[in-house]
């Protein structure tokens, strides 16, 4: 398992948050998704055998949001 | 598709401006040039241009099974377009996009305090390679065990241990303490702190989000998003509300066959202010706190703290600084100044906390002339013994005096007993078996404890209770100087928990203020745990509210802020619900149409944001001197 931290551009509408939350959650192998509306960050745990931080970042870009930075941390 | 989407979001503000120009051109053509065809064309172009970004958002949300506000607007705009109301459709898209723009700008303001905190986070470091050369790297590329070089005036990029060099560290961003602390080899340093001087090499123990500074930022970021009960309710409401509006719109169309009315319902039903009203108050309130050294863990903490009526305090380390200071000196020698000079000289040789307090006290009096002393012998548990010019010198406690047959007169006895009754530790000095000085030393009260507690009471707090493990005399002595209503002394940590539970059973909402480590059971039991922050992980994790600067002024500000934030949230909900009600009324009466409805909506969103922004400017209350100087009995 790994934890991805994605820094997005400024989020302004609360409905964006629900959108991003659901879109990322719907990916296979993803759990514990947290969208920080005010910080413009997304945190999610994912199974590296099923998806990657890159893929999650593409999902968010697909919704029309900028992804500025992607960080991945190994977790046990 | 992805690229188009991002391109459009990036240039949304330019699109909005273009629509504004088109609408203006259209109005000019219509009224000045009298060219209605051109006017209509401009409006059509404006509508299409405006509808694209909105429709794209709506579509991407729909793909993820979310019915968004954008969907309502898109349907309404397409509807207006079909029936030929180009002016309405253009105005609605413009107002919607322009509203987004204003929302973005004003939200930036409410988020500014946290942004300024994040900006203080280090980004690069000077990594020392194995060959001794340094290179500049991104902090994210550092690992545990890496050595980094920090130059004078530089920012420490990681949490770690100094392995080379010494310097003065300004750790204000972590501990709130602005006096630089001297640190040398083996001492811990924190990311985000600054070196005032000295070049040091630091061995990394943690990086980025794992550092203490990183955790503080993470905490505040999460706090701003963790919602109050009111906000959560609204959020849930909104998920059903938007689809419900869509269904109502369809029903209106089916039953009245009035298509324009149906699409107007869609526009009016946008839950704009309702959705943003409650969170925006929290963001502003929590942001204000963060700027003033108060970390509130989310909307829940703010909400509960606002309802607190009973404040329970720990004494040592909370009401007092945990540092010793001299309370009183009785002189039985000839010249007080030379007596104190001598005492200071003796105590300088000791690193006992009592001794250090005495030296500081005497230095602060301006007495710096101290005689040269011969070697002194330490008598364990009693004090120091020495001789000077054939005069025997004793400095220590009563046992030392007794052991050396020092006679104590009635007046001296009285002075000693007075200090002891106050709960002080007593330090005595005797020369040639005659007692010369009686010094009382006690734990220092925080300088703003009294004014802070009074401010809390003025803000509507009903009861302040002090619980302590200390003896009754010492406890009462502290309580007498403060606006405290109840004192319970000689308690174990589990007794403190019982008191908190008892107050809760009586129907009080209890906040417990402690230093976070031995008080953690009480912090957890109380409705709100307030940690006097020392920047340690324990304090950050147990408490709901953390006072980074360990000040009571900050506590009072936090209480007022929590109350104001809760009130602000309520105001915003009333504004939002009121707007929807007014619009519906306007619709029924027939004065509200699509364009004007959208306009009122956007105004209401701005009103709630501006209302929340009042919280940012809220400064900690200044206490007037009159209030601070009131005698303790008058305060109760």
UniProtKB/TrEMBL annotation, chain B:
List, alphabetically, the InterPro entries matched. Answer: ATPase_P-typ_cyto_dom_N, ATPase_P-typ_P_site, ATPase_P-typ_TM_dom_sf, ATPase_P-typ_transduc_dom_A_sf, ATPase_P-type_domA, Cation_Transport_ATPase_IB, HAD-like_sf, HAD_sf
- Span of domain P-type ATPase A: 119-221
Superkingdom of the organism of origin: Bacteria
Which controlled-vocabulary keywords does the entry list? ATP-binding, Cadmium, Cell membrane, Ion transport, Membrane, Metal-binding, Nucleotide-binding, Translocase, Transmembrane, Transmembrane helix, Transport
E.C. code: 7.2.2.21
GO cellular component entries: plasma membrane
Indicate what this protein is called per its UniProt record. Cd(2+)-exporting ATPase
Species of origin reads Companilactobacillus kimchiensis
């Amino acid at each position: 398992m790994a934890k991805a931290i994605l820094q997005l551009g400024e989020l302004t509408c609360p409905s964006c948050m629900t959108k991003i939350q659901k879109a990322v959650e719907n990916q296979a192998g993803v759990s514990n998704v947290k969208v920080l509306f005010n910080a413009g960050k997304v945190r999610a745990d994912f199974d590296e055998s099923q998806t990657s931080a890159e893929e999650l970042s593409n999902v968010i870009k697909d919704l029309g949001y900028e992804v500025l930075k992607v960080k991945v941390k190994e977790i046990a | 598709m992805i690229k188009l989407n991002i391109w459009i979001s990036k240039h949304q503000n330019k699109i909005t401006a273009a629509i504004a120009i088109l609408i203006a051109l259209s109005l000019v053509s219509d009224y000045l040039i009298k060219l209605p065809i051109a006017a209509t064309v401009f409006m059509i172009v404006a509508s299409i241009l405006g509808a694209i970004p909105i429709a794209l958002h709506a579509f991407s949300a729909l793909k993820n099974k979310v019915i968004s506000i954008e969907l309502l607007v898109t349907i309404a705009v397409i509807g207006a377009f079909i029936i030929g109301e180009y002016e309405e459709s253009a105005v609605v898209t413009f107002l919607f996009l322009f509203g987004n723009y204003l929302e973005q700008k004003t939200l930036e303001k409410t988020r500014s305090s946290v942004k300024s905190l994040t900006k203080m986070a280090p980004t690069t470091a000077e990594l020392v390679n194995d060959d001794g050369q340094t290179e500049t790297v991104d902090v994210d590329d550092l690992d545990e065990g890496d050595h980094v070089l920090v130059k004078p005036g530089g920012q420490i990029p990681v949490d770690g241990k100094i392995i080379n060099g010494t310097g003065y560290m300004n750790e204000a961003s972590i501990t709130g303490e602005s006096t630089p602390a001297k640190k040398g080899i083996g001492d811990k340093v924190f990311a985000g702190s600054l070196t005032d001087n000295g070049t040091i090499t630091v061995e990394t123990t943690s990086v980025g989000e794992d550092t203490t500074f990183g955790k503080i930022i993470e905490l505040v970021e999460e706090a701003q998003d963790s919602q109050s009960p009111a906000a959560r309710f609204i959020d849930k409401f909104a998920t059903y509300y938007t689809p419900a509006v869509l269904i109502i719109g369809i029903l209106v169309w089916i039953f009245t066959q009035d298509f324009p009315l149906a699409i107007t319902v869609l526009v009016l039903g946008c839950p704009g202010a309702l959705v943003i009203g409650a969170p925006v108050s929290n963001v502003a309130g929590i942001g204000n706190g963060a700027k003033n050294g108060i970390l509130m863990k989310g909307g829940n903490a703010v909400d509960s703290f606002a309802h607190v009526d009973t404040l329970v305090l720990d004494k040592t380390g909370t009401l007092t600084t945990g540092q010793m200071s001299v309370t009183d000196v009785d002189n039985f020698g000839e010249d007080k100044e030379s007596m104190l000079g001598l005492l200071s000289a003796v105590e300088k040789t000791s690193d006992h906390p009592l001794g250090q307090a005495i030296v500081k006290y005497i230095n602060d009096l301006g007495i710096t002339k101290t005689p040269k002393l011969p070697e002194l012998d330490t008598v364990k548990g009693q004090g120091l013994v020495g001789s000077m010019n054939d005069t025997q010198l004793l400095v220590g406690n009563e046992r030392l005096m007794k052991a050396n047959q020092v006679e104590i007169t009635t007046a001296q006895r009285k002075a000693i007993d007075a200090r002891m009754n106050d709960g002080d530790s007593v330090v005595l000095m005797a020369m040639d078996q005659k007692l010369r000085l009686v010094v009382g030393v006690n734990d220092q009260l925080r300088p703003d404890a009294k004014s802070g507690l009074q401010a809390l009471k003025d803000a509507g707090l009903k009861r302040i209770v002090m619980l302590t493990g200390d003896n009754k005399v010492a406890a009462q002595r502290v309580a007498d100087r403060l606006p405290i209503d109840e004192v319970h002394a000689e308690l174990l940590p589990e007794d403190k928990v019982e008191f908190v539970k008892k107050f809760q059973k009586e129907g009080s909402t209890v906040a417990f203020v402690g230093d976070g480590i031995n008080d953690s059971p009480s912090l957890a039991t109380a409705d709100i745990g307030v940690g006097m922050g020392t920047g340690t992980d324990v304090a950050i994790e147990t408490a709901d509210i953390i006072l980074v600067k360990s000040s009571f002024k900050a506590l009072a500000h936090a209480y007022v802020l929590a109350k104001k934030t809760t009130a602000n949230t309520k105001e915003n909900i009333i504004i939002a619900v009121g707007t929807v009600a007014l619009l519906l009324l306007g619709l029924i009466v027939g004065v509200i149409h699509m364009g004007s409805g959208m306009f009122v909506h956007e105004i209401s969103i701005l009103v709630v944001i501006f209302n929340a922004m009042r919280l940012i400017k809220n400064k900690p209350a200044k206490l007037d001197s009159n209030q601070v100087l009131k005698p303790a009995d008058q305060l109760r």
